[in-house]
Amino acid sequence: MFRDSIQPFLIGTSEDKQRYILMMITRNFRQAALLLVTILGLTGLGLALFELLSPTSGTAGSAGATLVLVSTALLAATAALLAFVHLKRWLFGLLLTLSVIDAAATAVAAYFLMANVLVATMLLALLAGLAAAFAGSRQGRMTT
Predict the structure, then answer these.
(1) How many CB atoms sit inside 10 A of residue 32's CB?
(2) What gap in Å lies between CA 41 and CA 76, rounded to an integer?
(3) DSSP per position, 87-105
(4) 103-125 burial string, b = 16+ CB within 10 Å, else e?
(5) Has this prediction a pTM greater than 0.70?
(6) CA distances (Å), origin 19, targets 10, 11, 66, 131
(7) How is residue 60 annotated by DSSP?
(8) Of 96, 91, 118, 94, nearest to 34 (Cα)?
(9) Residue 142: phi, psi to the nearest 5?
(10) What is the pLDDT of residues 55-107, one digit of tens each?
C-alpha cells in the first residue's frame, strides 16, 4: 500500500513528481473544502431549525424559515455526498454548482429573515464551495 502511494517518487522524471504532488494537494484541498461545506451546512441546519421553532426569533413557523431549513438540509446532504462518495465527473460538477447556488440563495433568504449568524455561515459555505470548485482548475493546463 505504502509503496503504491510513493510510486511516482521511485520512478519517473521530476515533472512527474511535481504533477503527482500537485494532484495530491488538490485532492486533499478539495476534500477539506467539501468537508467544511458539510460542517457549515449542518451548522446552518441547526440555526435554521432554531429560526423555525424559536418564538423569540420573530420568524417562527413562517414559510421563509421552512424554506431556509429545507435549503440548508439539501446543502448539507449534497456536500456530504460530494465529500464522501466518488461520483462521475459531470454529476460532481452539477452537484457542486448547485451547492454553490444553494449557499448563495440561502444566504439571501437568511438575510431577509434577519438571521445574521446564518447569513455569515452560508457566506462561509459559499466561499468554501467556490474553493472546492476551483481547486486544481489549472491542472489540465500543465504541459510536458
Answers:
(1) 15
(2) 4
(3) --HHHHHHHHHHHHHHHHH
(4) bbbbbebbeebebeebbebbbbb
(5) yes
(6) 14, 13, 46, 20
(7) T
(8) 96
(9) -70, 135
(10) 888 888 899 999 999 999 999 999 999 999 989 999 999 999 999 999 999 99
